[in-house]
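Hello support,

Our group uses your service weekly, and this is the first time we've seen a run hang past the timeout. The protein is Colanic acid biosynthesis protein WcaH. I'm not sure whether the cause is the sequence or the server load. Input pasted verbatim:
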Amino acid sequence: MLTGIDFLDVVRLTPLVSIDLIVRDADGRVLIGHRRNRPARGTWFVPGGRILKDETLDAAFARVAEAELGIGSLARSSARFEGVYEHHYHDNFADEPDVSTHYIVLAYSLTFSSAVPIGRPDQHSGYLWLAPSDLLARVDVHENTKAYFR
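Update from on-call engineer: The timeout came from a worker crash unrelated to the input. Re-ran successfully.
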């Protein structure tokens, strides 16, 4: 596991690879969470997380789904791959000046017919289910999330 200083070096020098989960309910509404952490703190964003060193995509997908949604053992094969996106942020997890964050994001969509249990209050301070048109109209939804619906 990296120390905070080592991880800051990684953030400064390389892009991070992550998985975002575009979760829809039976009515087509999308799940978004209000971010507690940097980057993008204070904005509404789809659930997601970094892929760890030596972690397979399948293992990363299952871990992110469990951590962000509270759903254990969710298979990546149950989701639809939406594409590769780039996310650029002017800040970083440590709020270190002059260190931006760059993500390469693998976006996957899932539709659930019943209520989704929500996990990790340490990641998000609240959750909303919004129609894509409502999500696009809000100024507090991050542009990187809006990009999935344009």
